[in-house]
Amino acid sequence: MSKPNFTLAEGQPVSDPSISTTLPTFGGGAYTNLGDTLLLETLAHFNRERIPERVVHAKASGAWGEFEITNDIRALTSAKFLNGVGKKTPVLFRLSTTGGEKGSADTVRDVRGFSVKFFTEEGNHDIVGNHIPVFFVRDPIRFPSLNRSHKRHPATNRPDWNMFWDFHTNQPESVHALMHLFGTRGIPDSIRRVPGFGVHTFKLVTADGSFRYCKFHFRPTLDITHFSGPDGTRMAGANPDYHNQDLWNAIARGQFPVWKLYVQTTEPAQAETYGRGLFDITKVWPHKQFPLIEVGKMTLNKNPENYFAEIEQAAFSPSNMVPGIAMTPDPMLQARMFAYPDAQRYRLGVNYTQLPPNRAICPVHHPFERDGSATITRNYGGEPNYVRNSQSRGAPGQTLADVRHTERIQQNAALGQNELSVGEEDFVQPRELWNRVFDETERRQWVSNVSETLDELPVALRQAVADMFSKVDPRIGQMLAAKASNSSHL
């Protein structure tokens, strides 16, 4: 098979891409010239070959795969990719740390972003969640501040535990997520063993318009295992791309990782008596009350051929929903439905949906969004781009029946600043995690993990951390105080 000849980007032939055109002088010097298109294009492209990295979730690994239905749930949803045992749908998977930049280490204590894009016959559907089942805040206006507190100090340009704990002690609704973060699951030892949670509450809608609320869960078929803090730190120094290498090598040798997808569901009538835990993402739905229902399995079986093109340019958003799955009155979900596509417009340009990892496999006809930088389609030719025109080649799509039940506005509700204040309810599930899920070894390790972050804190902030966790269980505050006392004598 003959090799292709080197050319410029516009196709003109190049004799040798490693040599510039110069005018020699004595002593081995030379003058370059503006007529050397190869040199100028090479330098100009090099200056522009980086795009803005994600503000959060910048460091990631990814792969291609397929999703197969193992349990037909057409009684729960009309979404076609979830109907029919044996049905397969192509997927793109991405798992990331949250706080670190692109060059940071994989094996740090951090929440992992867990994203899956389903390329369905009705358009792309994304599940964009985390590797722990709850989140830190429930008011979306706090989301930027949460992430700023986990990143670099504006003066020192270093991660700063003072910022971290100052934020969380002033937003104690985050205590449940903190219990998970500083437990053993805070440092996964392999992407192939990481669970994924949709976190938000969604709706599964049937063909007749009725619906149930639901949550999505991915569980790896391998055991969920983790690094200890010291092992994670050592690996971060020895191989900061360890997770990436582990996933890539497993797929390359044919040991394809598999996750099973489950849903939890509840009827609207039941949901209305459940309380604010229905849409509050700092809380979980107990499995005893809302058992897991198996849906299918996801298998990753193909590494990217080019990381930048296929993973770095991948754009995920919880707003990408197909018919049969719908949004709910979760304020964090609604805010993310704007924020995520807007982040992609900033990073990739307004036409990011035309890029290969984001391009739908079903027919797309939306002439009312066109033009802008990096348009790589025919741009709908001469078809008018205003609605209700008489020359359009498009036709109205088939839509589902109206949803029969919608959420009711609270009686006497008024538009205003309606904060969900922190109360005893916010400490119930963290207390269950501490008392019923953690064993004594995990409790002691959890305290040790938190204590390591408190050494440089001012006394008042250290006490505020202990006071916050004492509301989960008084013993936590006592154990943190004992650790601090022992450290002060070293």
UniProtKB/TrEMBL annotation:
Domain (Catalase core): residue spans on this chain: 7-395
- The EC code for this enzyme is 1.11.1.6
Q: Which GO terms describe its cellular component?
A: mitochondrion; peroxisome
Q: Which CDD domains match?
A: catalase_fungal
* Pathway connected to this protein: Alkaloid biosynthesis
Record field: catalytic activity = 2 H2O2 = O2 + 2 H2O
Keywords, ordered alphabetically: Alkaloid metabolism, Heme, Hydrogen peroxide, Iron, Metal-binding, Oxidoreductase, Peroxidase
Gene Ontology BP annotations: alkaloid metabolic process; hydrogen peroxide catabolic process; response to hydrogen peroxide
Signal peptide region:
none
Annotated active site residues, numbered on this chain, are H57, N130
Per its UniProt record, the required cofactor names are:
heme
The molecular function terms of the Gene Ontology recorded here are: catalase activity; heme binding; metal ion binding
Q: List positions binding heme.
A: Y340
* UniProt-listed InterPro entries: Catalase, Catalase_AS, Catalase_clade1/3, Catalase_core, Catalase_haem_BS, Catalase_immune_responsive, Catalase_sf
Query: What role is this protein assigned?
Result: Catalyzes the degradation of hydrogen peroxide (H(2)O(2)) generated by peroxisomal oxidases to water and oxygen, thereby protecting cells from the toxic effects of hydrogen peroxide.
The similarity annotation says: Belongs to the catalase family.
Name of the protein this chain belongs to: Catalase
